């Protein structure tokens, strides 16, 4: 997943270093978009169908002009509105415009509200950096008002390619055909709501164009089970990892149950829950597979555990703070901190400083805050974080030495020195009490099976979102509860 600057660099590398002419890349882009348009009309006669292209005067507009020619050749009644000053057009646009002059395509400079079979947005590309105003805004609003399937080339005009922000106004596409690599802004909110279905097409810009500068962000799209730890056929419960889970104060057994299920469902061999004595019977009835120990006896289990997770439902009182101090000071085993554990950490600067020093020295620490917890932990406002979620997540990962799982509608997983992972799975049904507890357990289960902290957090978040999508598929987004997410981790291994 690339930024505008990364894509510009790869494009220029393909042209100037690899030696692929820009017009060849442009032709491939137009052909790949044409392929997707034809898919929209399966078995239909294309002769006489109507197509409209809104073209700027840059290279995105040139892609649109090339596509207009190809649509005309397929029999579409094609119209083009060329928006902008042709005196400042790119040389590729001028070349495509000269070619298009030899085709029976109606061209003009204004768009009128009408009805078309397909409307193509080729006004701006990924380089847009200022708000859309005046005549350009009028054209976009008119485009949106037209009837017909709307397809954006590379990115909907008006959407910031790096963060998904709407730059004043933007095209509302049904489909976006993006070229070579997915642009970050197509998957952040609100950009993803304007992009519609995103289809990434190969046009010949390969990893050979990276020249030592690979993209700084990625996402998972494959079968989730292909990402899970390999299981030995001769393994045993000890082989698959032992999780010590400190969760659940008096009356908060549910948080512990959900987290324990998350760890077991992702393959952990043994889970020992350290909880309040009052929760013993409910825990043993709800998840009899788990071992039980009280908070007071937790210390004796530190040597037993492979990894430790703490936070769900522990509260923020003195007993919980003492518990967290013990897990920071008495062991250097991998540690996952969530929920109340994060709020305790935010309120105690000495504890936080100690933990961050351990992480900087090599202890594997995963923090899983939502925006409010992240703001408290690092002393910023939620407004600040929302304005630049990627930048702040990177900064916090560098400052703390921890893996940061910054939970939001789009969750970022960050570690110093690693490419960012953006999770694009999940749905609104997962915004429900206990969902984060399940995630804590999932990450702990993967960590216990030998994944490093970053991979456990990235794969775990993807697994969590995929399970939430399965649950929403069964129940609808309104009906999803955290327990459904835990249940849907398991099942047939189609992901």
CATH architecture of the largest domain: 3-Layer(aba) Sandwich
Rg, rounded, reads 26 Å
Distance between the termini: 22 Å
Q: What's the overall geometry? A: elongated
Query: What's the domain count?
Result: 2
- Helix content class: 25-40%
Counting DSSP E segments of at least 2 residues, the number of strands comes to 17
Give the CATH topology of the largest domain: UDP-N-acetylmuramoyl-L-alanine:D-glutamate ligase
Strand order of the largest sheet: 8-17-16-15-14-13-12-9-10-11
Mean pLDDT: 96
Low-confidence parts lasting 5 or more residues at pLDDT below 50?
none
Going by helix content, strand content and strand pairing, the class is alpha/beta
The CATH superfamily of the largest domain is known as Ribokinase
Please outline the major beta sheet.
Answer: 10 strands, mixed
Question: In percent, how much strand structure appears in the residues?
Answer: 15-25%
User: How many alpha or pi helices?
Assistant: 17
Q: What's the CATH C level of the largest domain?
A: Alpha Beta
SSE layout:
Blueprint lengths: L3 H15 L3 H18 L10 E6 L3 H15 L3 E6 L8 H10 L5 E3 L6 E8 L11 H12 L1 E7 L21 E5 L11 H5 L1 E5 L15 E2 L23 E5 L6 H13 L4 E6 L4 H7 L4 E4 L12 E4 L7 H12 L5 E3 L2 H8 L1 H12 L4 E3 L3 H8 L3 H6 L1 H12 L2 E4 L4 E4 L5 E4 L11 H14 L4 H23 L6 H6 L8
């Amino acid at each position: 997943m690339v930024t505008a600057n990364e894509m510009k660099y790869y494009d220029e590398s393909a042209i100037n270093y690899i030696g692929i002419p820009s017009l060849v890349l442009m032709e491939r882009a137009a052909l790949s978009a044409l392929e997707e348009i034809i898919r929209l009309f399966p078995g239909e006669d294309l002769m006489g169908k109507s197509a409209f292209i809104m073209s700027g005067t840059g290279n995105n507009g040139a892609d649109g002009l090339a596509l207009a020619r190809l649509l005309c050749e397929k029999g579409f009644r094609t119209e083009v509105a060329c928006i902008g000053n042709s005196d400042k057009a790119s040389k590729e646009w001028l070349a495509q415009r000269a070619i298009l002059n030899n085709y029976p395509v109606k061209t003009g400079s204004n768009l009128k509200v009408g009805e078309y079979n397909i409307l193509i947005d080729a006004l701006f590309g990924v380089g847009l950096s200022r708000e859309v105003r005046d005549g350009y805004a009028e054209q976009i609003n008119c485009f949106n008002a037209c009837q017909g399937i709307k397809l954006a080339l590379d990115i909907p005009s008006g959407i910031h390619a790096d963060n998904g922000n709407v730059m004043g106004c933007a095209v509302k596409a049904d489909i976006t055909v993006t070229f070579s690599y997915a642009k970050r802004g197509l998957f952040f909110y609100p950009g993803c709501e304007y992009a519609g279905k995103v289809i990434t097409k190969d046009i010949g810009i390969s990893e050979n164009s990276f020249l030592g500068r690979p993209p700084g962000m990625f996402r998972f799209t494959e079968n989730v089970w292909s990402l899970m730890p390999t299981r030995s056929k001769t393994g045993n419960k000890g082989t698959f990892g032992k999780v010590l889970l400190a969760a659940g104060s008096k009356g908060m057994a549910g948080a512990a149950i959900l987290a324990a299920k998350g760890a077991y469902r992702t393959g952990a061999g043994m889970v020992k829950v350290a909880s309040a004595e009052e929760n013993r019977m409910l825990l043993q009835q709800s998840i009899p597979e788990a071992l039980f120990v009280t908070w007071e006896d937790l210390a004796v289990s530190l040597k037993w555990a492979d990894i430790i997770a703490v936070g769900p439902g522990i509260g923020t009182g003195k007993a919980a703070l003492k518990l967290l101090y013990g897990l920071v000071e008495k062991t250097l085993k991998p540690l996952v901190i969530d929920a109340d554990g994060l709020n305790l950490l935010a309120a105690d600067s000495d504890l936080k400083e100690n933990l961050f020093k351990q992480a900087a020295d090599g202890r594997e620490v995963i923090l899983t805050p939502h925006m409010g917890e992240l703001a408290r932990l690092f002393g910023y406002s939620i407004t600040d974080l929302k304005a630049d979620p990627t930048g702040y997540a990177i900064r916090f990962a560098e400052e703390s030495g921890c893996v940061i799982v910054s939970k939001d509608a789009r969750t970022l997983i960050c570690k110093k020195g690693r490419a960012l992972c953006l999770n694009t799975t999940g749905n609104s049904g997962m915004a429900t009490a206990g969902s984060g507890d399940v995630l804590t357990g999932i990450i702990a289960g993967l960590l216990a099976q030998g994944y490093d902290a970053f991979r456990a957090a990235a794969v775990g978040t993807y697994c969590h979102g995929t399970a939430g999508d399965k649950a929403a598929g069964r129940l609808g987004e309104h009906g999803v509860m955290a327990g459904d997410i835990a249940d849907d981790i398991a099942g047939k291994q189609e992901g």
